[in-house]
Amino acid sequence: MKILSLNANIEVYSGMKELNKADKALLKAAKKSLKDAYAPYSKFKVGAALRLKNGKVIIGNNQENASFPLTLCAERVAIFAAAAKYPTEAIEAIAITATSGSQVLDKPVTPCGSCRQVISESEFRFKQDIRVILYGEKGEVYVLNSIKDILPLTFDANFL
Ligand code: THU
Prior knowledge:
single chain, alpha+beta, 3 helices, globular, binds tetrahydrodeoxyuridine
């Protein structure tokens, strides 16, 4: 037996101000988009914004449903909208942020497992790692250079 240790390098910024121009602009777009989330049940609004290789910025926000499992997360709304309109454009970066109905989010919000898998599929599809920018409402910003940092032992089409 041996131990397999998994290591992730996450860039931690003290706040939005410390980000480079491109990351800050994308995070601002994500923040702007969360106000249009449809989250009457959880009151947890999530905004996502992604930048494509052609420079276009596509936003998404969570869309809930009275039949709860039908809800779609902000990240997937943005990724699928981008893929529908620009099917040949790789995603360079995605920014994700949220507000909660019950607390101030002072730590970066991290994407759910399903969204990690969908972001991973996009990396695989376009053979390009995606920069992932994570923020709450205040405090630190986490930046990953690939979703694989928070989805180790990734399942992808190489297994099929
Ligand atoms: N949500 C997202 O939009 N993205 C995530 O990565 C995590 C969860 C949404 C789904 C639901 O509308 C609300 O947040 C609470 O789970």
